[in-house]
Design brief:
The complex is a heterodimer.
Chain A: E1 13-24, E2 31-42, E3 46-50, H1 57-64, E4 72-77, E5 80-81, H2 87-97, E6 98-102, H3 113-123, H4 128-141, H5 157-169, E7 175-179, H6 187-202, E8 206-210, H7 214-217, E9 222-227, E10 230-235, H8 241-245
Parallel strand pairs in A: 3-8, 3-9, 6-7, 7-8
Antiparallel strand pairs in A: 1-2, 1-4, 4-5, 9-10
Helix pairs in contact in A: 3-4, 3-5, 4-5, 5-6
Chain B: H1 3-11, E1 16-17, H2 18-28, H3 37-49, E2 53-58, E3 64-68, H4 70-81, H5 93-101, H6 109-135, H7 142-177, H8 179-182
Antiparallel strand pairs in B: 1-3, 2-3
The chains are: A alpha/beta, B mainly alpha.
Chain lengths: 249, 191
């Protein structure tokens, strides 16, 4: 790997999906959205998930974040089995450990950027003033500290997406789940969003990125390919590009 | 593109000697097209034969120098001004391979597609890492970044095409499996 970026393979496991299946319906009409998924994501690692429409990419992401429950297998986030948690405990884990970035940003228009970012902390019982301080740091991380008190509708699509990322990673969250996070953005802004996700993973978060854009998936340490609900292949950088292209500088 | 125009472009800057041309060519193209010095001299001989390059004495270290002629400058200007035609680019082995795969019995075409996609994805990851590192460098190495971005877009395009091939194969397989696909259209009229 070039530079200091990227996963070194030695960090703690944040997400473990073991023989995970998700079936909708039963009998002859059952739809197997996912089957036999084994996937581990470590701290500092960004994994991209690719596959054709209907291959199970989003279902995989929802199961990883406890937004949906598997019909078979086990999902552990920071070594905690989601199936063993009560609904309240699972909601708490989702708020504290998991950050979500969706194509639909779900920012609340009546709240400022800082309030949008601090909301999950306040919901988790943190005092508003303390939550704001943490939110401002998160906004500073995404280079948006200067627009903390502006409302989403006054901001560009790229700025809104960066607020969504700040909200996803505010506090001590260790797992970042992103579903087509660059969807509506132009090429350059989309790339800056990927750079942010990459940087947060380089700093210790574990990331899972669902995308249909190969150029975006290439920012990941590992790309897994889904087909008909199963992982059919995966790719990691060869590190051979330097020898292929000749090392520069 | 040929080595020929690459050398003309370099000589438009100043007279150079053979090994210098080789080194500059590789540097400017981010080492994506390694040359050996023999290729350089063979090309120079042809350029001299065609009147596009002339010898220009030797430098202080005794290296034989070459310079652009007026005809060489005109040929170079034409090259800058003329788009590359599709016909001038090499044939794509992958296209030929897949075209054969769908017609030769017994080939698991989806597997061929997936194997290629994984390999191209790996290359795309490699290029992306190099680009991220290059973007962080100061001062920026624009030639290197542009070459990398070109390779990134080419790899991406290849993956998109492979995705398209796969969805076509799936669509085709569904059509073949569908009983109605085998039914002849209802005949109309009297026979």
């Amino acid at each position: 790997m070039t530079g200091q970026r990227g996963f070194d393979g030695a960090s703690a496991l944040v997400l473990e999906m073991i023989d995970v299946s998700r079936t909708h319906g039963a009998g002859a009409t059952a739809v197997h959205a996912l089957r036999g998924i084994d996937l581990l994501v470590h701290a500092g690692e960004l994994v991209a998930v690719m596959g054709p429409s209907g291959s199970g990419k989003s279902t995989l992401l929802h199961l990883a974040g406890g937004l949906d429950s598997p019909t078979g297998g086990t999902v552990l986030v920071e070594a905690r089995d989601l199936a063993a948690l009560s609904a309240r405990e699972r909601a708490r884990l989702r708020r504290r450990s998991v950050g979500y970035v969706f194509q639909e940003l779900n920012l609340i228009p009546a709240l400022t950027a800082a309030e949008n970012v601090s909301l999950p902390l306040e919901l988790d019982g943190i005092h508003a003033k303390a939550a704001r301080e943490v939110a401002l740091r998160a906004l500073d991380d995404v280079a948006l500290a200067d627009i903390a008190d502006r409302y989403p509708d006054d901001l560009s699509g790229g700025q809104q997406q960066r607020i969504a990322i700040a909200r996803a990673l505010v506090g001590e969250r260790r797992l970042l789940l992103a579903d087509e996070p660059t969807g509506a953005l132009d090429s350059e802004t989309g790339e800056s969003v990927l750079a942010l996700i990459r940087t947060r993973c380089d700093r210790g978060a574990a990331g899972m990125l669902v995308t249909h854009e190969a150029r975006h998936a290439a920012w990941a340490d590992r790309v897994v390919f889904l087909r008909d609900g199963a992982i059919v292949d995966e790719s990691t950088p060869s590190g051979g590009a330097e020898s292929l292209l000749g090392r520069r500088g | 593109m040929s080595v020929r125009y690459g050398l003309l472009a370099l000589l438009a800057e100043e007279p150079m000697y053979g090994n210098q041309l080789r080194a500059e060519f590789e540097h400017r193209t981010a080492a994506t097209w390694p040359l050996n010095v023999g290729q350089v001299y063979t090309t120079l001989e042809r350029l001299i034969r065609d009147g596009l390059v002339a010898t220009a004495g030797a430098d202080a270290d005794g290296h034989d120098l070459y310079q652009l002629t007026d005809a060489g400058q005109q040929a170079l200007t034409r090259w800058w001004d003329t788009p590359l035609t599709r016909e001038s680019r090499p044939r794509d082995e992958l296209t030929i391979k897949l075209a054969l795969a769908v017609t030769v019995p017994g080939v698991d075409v989806r597997s061929v597609v997936q194997t290629q996609r994984t390999d191209t994805m790996r290359a795309l990851q490699d290029y992306t890492r190099l680009k991220i590192a290059a973007d962080e460098r100061t001062p920026p190495d624009l030639a290197w970044v542009l070459v990398l971005e070109s390779m990134i877009f080419q790899a991406e395009s290849e993956i998109r095409w492979l995705d398209h091939c796969e969805s076509r194969l799936v669509h085709q397989a569904k059509k073949t499996r569908s009983p109605s696909a085998n039914n002849e259209p209802a005949k109309r009229g009297r026979r």
